[in-house]
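Sequence of 3-oxoacyl-[acyl-carrier-protein] synthase 2 (Opitutus terrae).
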Amino acid sequence: MDTSPDSRRVVITGLGAIHGLGHEVASFWAGLVAGRPGVHRVTAFDPTDFACQIGAEVRDWDAAQHMDPKEARRNDRYTHFGFVAALQAVRDAALDPAREDLDRVGVVIGSGIGGMNTYESQLRVLAERGPRKVSAFTIPSLIGNICSGLVAIELGARGPNFGVVSACATGTHAIGEAAHMIRRGDADVMIAGGSEASITPFAYASFCAMKAMSTRNDSPETASRPFDRDRDGFVMGEGAGILVLESLAHARARGAKIYCELAGYAATCDAHHITQPDPEGKGLSMAMKRALASAGAAPESVDYINAHGTSTPYNDRFETLAIKQIFGEHARKLAVSSTKSMTGHLLGAAGGIESVICAKIIETGTLPPTINLANPDPECDLDYVPNQARPASVRTVLSNNLGFGGQNAAAVFRKI
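Predicted 3D structure, token representation.
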């Protein structure tokens, strides 16, 4: 096992993304830079009776065009997204399984909810047609670790493999824990991120009952408006964001293209409330502080923050407070944006797709905007890159994600 310093540094060499803005990274990124909203009226089911009728759906998607049709039929939509995005990332990394020690290649792909489509459809079968008609593939299809398993089977990857479930912090936790596996020598390569497909009647009914979602149904494109005074809740999104992570030594040995280094990561808990963030921002502040410390990065070295920025009254205010607590006067010099203004909130996939975004920011020197920021909340008074993308000299980027249960995740990305 390589024990050189470069074996403990973790870099990103491949990116994969599935979203309504694009079924691969290039078109997805182009949509973000253009400030294009990915939110529309829901078409997956008739939303007429729901308080929230809008979402960022992946439209014109046929999983059988991207994977074996038999496997597509046997697996849930969330698995389709994660599986295809993972193979995109592997191709982008030019990672050839035939040339790898597959005992040292692992997969950690998380989902906040898992196979919600399967759960609902098979409950309908049970109610309408009886227990003998329930599919034998129901359990493997709906559980949250199957995407990781399916990717491993496809690649022959026998290294560490499991799913992560921590609500909306899932994707960042999956990526951060995968990086830890590389640093401690358990793997040379990890495929990691998040996938979610929860634009379903039951999921919408449940979130609407919590009054957590926007009801700006007459103007879907402007409904997700993080940090805006008139925000009224989050907008559901779906899709996947997956990274190929490698030790720096391994990436250099095979001549891989390197997007950036995943330099730091931390996970904390608010221990405050099951759905509301700590009003003093304690848990998130500690996550950012620890992530920066693990990266050996001073707060003033950070150029940009990809905020969790859900467009909910509580999150945006408390996240702004936490940023001020950690960055002090430098908070006024930072660029901060919420790409959820365009992508919607992908729940367990949010950290995955936002990590893809962070890598592209470092590669291109372009900051995607916070769109729909027309009337800033007086308590949200930082530079949120309003409404238009911006060129910038970017070396160090921080990404935040928070989840129900009080779970927080922060990751630091740095140019090599």
